């Protein structure tokens, strides 16, 4: 596609300037350079191409040359100064525009993720960045071993992989608080799965949490908060797997919705374990591993590096202290729920 023709206003005085420089042998003054730099900025802001701007000046130089007496070296030096000043002004204008765009994008992302803006205005701004907030959206959050910002190689690598696979499909990839984020339409789960795959590869092993699709302008922040909560749950509960979905872990928010009730359960069911030699932690870990193994004593003993006899002794000691038998199906549910609650509330490290 041909570039737009450069208007004559960007060449005003150029031929006379060459003639004067050629006749006197002088270099351009500071004000003359500043004027050409300003013209370069104006051309960039008006949407003209830098190549077209330089070609226009080279053409003007050639046209003015036959009528220009004096030193060819001075003329070429002046032309070089003019082109350099134009390019400098043009690049400065582009840099300012990029920074302005980055600031607007970051402000939009902050408002989007924290819900601090009027939802109607937020939806209007979202279209500029490829999102239609009237539809449902889901958010995936990747937390790696280090913090990332948008200019880092890892986000660029992940963005390239997404663009190569899906192109322009109303996807927003960004960073927030050192984490990678991907916002995608709620009915395009393959986008978030692809993001998780490449984020894991690019970070040499990260954990990705995916929130549920949520409807409307406020849906993005809801899904984002779900993903963050899922990462926190995974950390506290030691959940395995690089990709965790909030939809698969809804039981945990339900258990902690009434925090005081859960704290009471942990205190009543497991509080007596603090009287054990060595405190509650070893016996609490025994219960946790025992339940994770499906109450299979041999497997639990192997994971804990204990003999089956030692494991059986610990389970008996738990029964003695709490009055609840981990081997009894009637007691098992209460104990297991209390163990999950203890991990969610970080007990006994934190007092209830």
Automatic annotation (TrEMBL):
InterPro entries: CdaR-like_regulators, CdaR_GGDEF, PucR_C-HTH_dom, PucR_C-HTH_sf. Residues 115-233 form the CdaR GGDEF-like domain. Residues 283-339 form the PucR C-terminal helix-turn-helix domain. It comes from the Bacteria. Belongs to the CdaR family. This is Helix-turn-helix domain-containing protein. It comes from Streptomyces gilvifuscus.
């Amino acid at each position: 596609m041909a570039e737009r023709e450069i208007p004559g206003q960007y060449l005003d005085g150029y031929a006379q300037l060459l003639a004067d420089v050629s006749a006197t042998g002088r270099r351009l003054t500071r004000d003359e350079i500043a004027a050409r730099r300003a013209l370069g900025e104006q051309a960039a802001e008006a949407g003209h191409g830098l190549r077209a701007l330089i070609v226009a000046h080279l053409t003007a130089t050639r046209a003015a040359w036959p009528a220009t007496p004096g030193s060819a070296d001075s003329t070429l030096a002046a032309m070089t100064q003019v082109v350099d000043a134009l390019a400098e002004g043009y690049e400065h204008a582009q840099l300012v525009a990029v920074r302005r765009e980055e600031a607007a994008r970051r402000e939009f992302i902050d408002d989007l993720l924290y819900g601090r803006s009027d939802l109607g205005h937020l939806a209007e701004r979202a279209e500029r960045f490829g999102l239609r907030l009237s539809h449902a959206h889901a958010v995936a959050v990747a937390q790696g071993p280090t913090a990332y910002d948008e200019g880092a190689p890892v986000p660029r690598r992940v963005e390239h992989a997404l663009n190569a696979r899906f192109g322009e499909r109303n996807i927003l990839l960004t960073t927030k608080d050192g984490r990678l984020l991907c916002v995608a339409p709620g009915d395009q789960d393959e986008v978030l799965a692809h993001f998780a795959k490449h984020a894991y590869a690019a970070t040499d092993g990260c954990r990705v949490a995916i929130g549920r699709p949520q409807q409307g302008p406020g849906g993005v922040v809801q899904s984002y908060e779900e993903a963050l909560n899922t990462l926190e749950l995974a950390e506290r509960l030691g959940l395995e797997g690089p990709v965790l979905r909030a939809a698969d872990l809804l039981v945990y928010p339900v258990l902690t919705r009434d925090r005081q009730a859960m704290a009471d359960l942990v205190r009543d069911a497991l509080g007596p374990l603090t009287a054990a030699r060595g405190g509650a932690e070893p016996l609490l870990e025994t219960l946790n591993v025992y339940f994770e193994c499906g109450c299979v004593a041999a497997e639990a003993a192997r994971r804990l590096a204990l003999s089956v006899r030692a494991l059986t002794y610990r389970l008996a000691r738990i029964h003695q202290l709490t009055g609840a038998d981990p081997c009894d199906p009637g007691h098992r549910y209460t104990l297991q729920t209390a163990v999950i609650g203890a991990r969610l509330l970080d007990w006994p490290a934190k007092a209830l």
